[in-house]
Specification:
Number of domains: 1
Structural class: mainly alpha
Radius of gyration: 23 Å
Shape: globular
Number of helices: 11
Number of strands: 0
Order of helices and strands: HHHHHHHHHHH
CATH architecture: Orthogonal Bundle
């Protein structure tokens, strides 16, 4: 009985610790939502003196928000497309091949997301300067693609490794060529992993700040615009409204990726 009581006490302590940890993580997000409705535009007061919806209309009419939003969507979409193509090809090569230095190359592939963003940004900026490449939307896309590829690669290579090699051999024995094998065998098995990787890459690119700071030049993505607004605020609640938009654009793909991959262990072709 005493051991059961001790176990229940320890379990309750862990639950309380977990609850406090979750609260410390999510209460700041709730404050962002709260201050998007405050009537005070110059400072953050708690509790807010009043609540209003007018800042959503003000944000909609602010013309300086739309170009950064459009640029962020462009960069995220193109970076994700590049990452899905290159990440999948690299994953296929690494998962199905055995050669000297394979592990070292795998480490190099993962390096861009393991390094601090400041290091990656400085390296890219130096490379662009040496090659006399002017800053443009493409320099931002190249910067984002370096870490987006890793996201797609991780999802794809994990699914490749769980894919039973026998189904590829069976497809070849039945007379299917490489394209038919890819279309009818690989793509159905990889589809959810690639889609999840693409969604995660899009979310990561859309709200990226550090690498963008080094590769954007005079251009401003939406996260950069938010950072500038926090330094020189015009209407603080508008920044919070934009933060809610960024939260929605990043959270929904992450949620969808979670739903797509939560049953990933039960991959077709991997069971008996």
């Amino acid at each position: 009985m005493r051991s059961d009581d001790k176990g229940n006490g320890a379990s309750m302590g862990l639950k309380i610790a977990a609850g406090l940890g979750l609260a410390s993580l999510h209460l700041p997000i709730l404050l962002i939502f709260l201050y998007a409705f405050t009537t005070e535009e110059k400072s953050y007061q708690f509790p807010p003196p009043g609540l209003t919806l007018k800042w959503f209309a003000v944000a909609w009419e602010r013309q300086d928000i739309w170009p950064p939003l459009w640029l962020s969507l462009q960069v995220a979409a193109v970076s994700t497309l590049i990452a899905m193509i290159l990440g999948t090809l690299v994953a296929a090569a690494m998962a199905n091949s055995r050669f000297f230095g394979r592990d070292q190359i795998s480490l190099l592939i993962l390096l861009p997301i393991a390094l601090p963003g400041v290091i990656t940004g400085m390296a890219l900026r130096s490379a662009f300067s040496v090659m006399d490449i002017p800053f443009s939307v493409w320099t931002i896309i190249l910067g984002h693609a370096t870490f987006c590829i890793v996201i797609v690669y991780n999802n794809a290579v994990a699914r490749f490794r769980r894919l039973h090699g026998g189904i590829l051999e069976a497809s070849a024995d039945l007379g299917a060529n490489s394209f038919q094998t890819f279309r009818h065998v690989l793509l159905p098995n990889l589809g959810s992993a690639l889609l999840a990787g693409g969604m995660l890459a899009f979310a990561l690119s859309f709200d990226e700040v550090i690498v963008t700071t080094f590769t954007a030049g005079q251009q401003s993505t939406l996260p950069i615009w938010m950072l500038q607004e926090l330094v020189r605020p015009r209407q603080r609640p508008v920044t919070n409204v934009v933060a809610i938009v960024v939260f929605a654009v990043t959270f929904l793909p992450i949620l969808a990726a979670y739903v797509l991959t939560r049953d990933g262990d039960h991959t077709a072709g991997a069971g008996k």
